[in-house]
Amino acid sequence: MAPDSDKRNFALREDGDESSVFSGGTPRQAALKAARRLEPADGEDQADPEEIRLREKGTHKVHIYEAWAWVEEAPDDKPDWMPGDITKGNVSKQGVEHLDEI
């Protein structure tokens, strides 16, 4: 895992507002965290991709992803604190956009 100094912050943009911040060493890592906040489907095959936009803090770059989430049963060797069903997410990068203004 990357040291905290290597982590970057990405703001989730919705209609020009930046509602949440996700951190990660890469934009994809932050996008995966954001994807798990979407409304999960019953399985990965039933999940409908949604567009998410993450602006890297301190820059004008917006990373655009298609993201989807689904619920599945936790593995048999799960820790005691983990629930029986877990939310998983996946993303597919669509591109990068550069903003004139933040």
Automatic annotation (TrEMBL):
Segments for region (Disordered):
1-54, 75-102
Recorded superkingdom? Archaea
Q: Is DNA-binding set as a keyword in this record?
A: yes
Q: Where is the composition biased (Basic and acidic residues)?
A: 1-14
What is an annotated GO biological process for this record, any one? DNA protection
Q: Which SUPFAM superfamilies match?
A: Chromosomal protein MC1
The record ties this protein, via InterPro entries, to: MC1, MC1_sf
A Pfam family cross-referenced in the UniProt record is MC1
Q: Which UniProt keywords apply?
A: DNA-binding
Functional note = Protects DNA against thermal denaturation and modulates transcription.
Q: What is this protein called?
A: Chromosomal protein MC1
Q: Which organism was this protein described from?
A: Haloarcula sebkhae
Q: What is the lineage of its organism?
A: Archaea, Methanobacteriati, Methanobacteriota, Stenosarchaea group, Halobacteria
